Amino acid sequence: MEISPKNNRAFDAYYGALEAFANQGVTHEQAVRLGFTNLLDAYSKSAGWTLVLEQRLSNGKIPDGTVFDTFRIPRGYWEAKDTQDDLDAEIQNKIKSGYPLVNTIFEDTRRAVLFQDKQRVLSVDLRKPTELADLLSRFFSYTGAQIDEFHRAVAEFQDRIPDLARGLERRIEEERPVNPAFVAAFESFHDVCRSALNPNISVQAIEEMLVQHLLTERLFRTVFNSPEFAKRNVIAGEIEKVIHALTSQSFSRDEFLKQLDYFYNAIENTARTIYDFSEKQGFLNTVYERFFQGFSRATADTHGIVYTPQAIVDFMCRSVEEVLESEFGLSLSDKGVTILDPCTGTGNFVVNLLRRIRPLDLRRKYESELFANEVMLLPYYVASLNIEHAYYELSGQYRLFEGIAFADTLDMAEAKQLAMFGEDNTERVQRQKDTPITVIIGNPPYNVGQQNENDNNKNRRYSVIDNRIRDTYVKHSRATLKTQVYDAYVRFFRWATDRLGDRDGIVCFVTNNSFVDQIAFDGVRKHLAQDFTRFYHLDLHGNVRKNRKSARRTMFSVFK
């Protein structure tokens, strides 16, 4: 990034702030660092990065600022000192205490020193705009060999995923005529998937699940430091049985995956530079978005594989917390306040909520009053690990999160008893169905079908939910074209309303904004007004179907 001091509003604001502090005789760090904070923040945003203040590192050190890129990789650090400090002496103290020197600015409003790759590379007079511009240009242009390697590896991994997947699918086909144990295990697993996920699920979709597991299981073990991941996770264990049968004769799993060492090592080494677990969570979210786009665009399109930004997750969780208190006199920690994320993705909402629970109530909430569902394999894996790690951080104890189920939430509205991937998952589903729910929060998948009728990628029908929509939203609509009312969001409106039943409760979703003013949704608006006593709607003025580049949506919250 090349930065010029000429006609630069950010520079003008920075020097104006310093002048104001000087006129007031203010020299202490907490005040004067505000000017540099705003300057770094402005250029972080222009680079598509994020400045986070006082992010604790794994060694306990807390730089004044850490700059993260879109993968949540820390790209640089900033440490501010008082104008009365001896900057060089302070730098030496920070180095001795273990502060990172990968790409780090130390400054005291008069002078700044830049370290890169543990070497002092620049010292500038901050009172000279040209030198300040040089400092920021070098800071924001720095990548480092490891980061360059990571970005190349991710891009190549995304490009190579289709070929790798086809290679695995060929090996699966080669095993079918010669490996009866694999055929039996595969058919058994297929039967369970028909029952638990989709009665029309294809052989190809099952093979894709096996391929996803084979290609990514190592990342779960290493990035999350969970060597027994496949044994602990209910669904991973079921899939491992099929994989074991697949590899019981001629196919060598380890031999096939050796060709991926370059990609795995680059991703794993970069993950080790991310100290905070929540940042590691964001990192993996982005990696998996890229994985799905490379692995199967149809899968990504059908299920809306785009994960909710942390800022929105935080806003929604805080909103639920406030509404519980103001309307019902309850808190998230109270006994009987049961919470469900019906499409949990990688578990961001549940992790955020756990951190809002009082310590004395944490175990009870975690074990019996917190639920989540996920229908996609890889996000389900990440969610399980994220939630379990969050609980470990908060409690100091490791416990499986038995509130999460690998299941299609809308299908759970069916009255039939399902066999849900073995006894453990079946019990989780049934316990959730038997529990009255107080709060439903999440980000439903946004795809209503497909963009091209020839894609053979339509979303499935859900007889119970679709009949409820027909008997309510459609029946009381004056629109002539009513197909849109079976939008995935509307299905989740209908399901969530019915799931609360006659009880007091809250629904908080990220949605599109089609139902606000489009004529096809007049029946939806009528019933929402009847079914809920109060309705909050934050419109971000974006419609992903009209403007896919913005992909901004709407936050929606209602309560009875």
Helix count equals 22
Return Rg in Å: 26 Å
| Low-pLDDT sequence parts | 300-305, 448-458, 548-553
Sum up the overall morphology in one term.
globular
The total strand number stands at 13
Which structural class matches the secondary elements? alpha/beta
- Separation of the first and last Cα atoms: 51 Å
User: Strand-residue fraction?
Assistant: 5-15%
Would you mind describing this structure in some detail?
The chain folds into four domains: 9-142, tt1808, chain A; 147-301, no CATH class; 307-443, 3-Layer(aba) Sandwich (Rossmann fold), CATH 3.40.50; 455-560, no CATH class. Helix content is 52%, strand content 12%. The protein is α/β, with parallel strands linked by helices. The longest helix is centred in the N-terminal third of the chain and has 31 residues, at 145-175. The chain contains 22 helices and 13 strands. The strands form two sheets. It has a seven-stranded mixed β-sheet, with helices on both faces. 41% of the residues are buried.
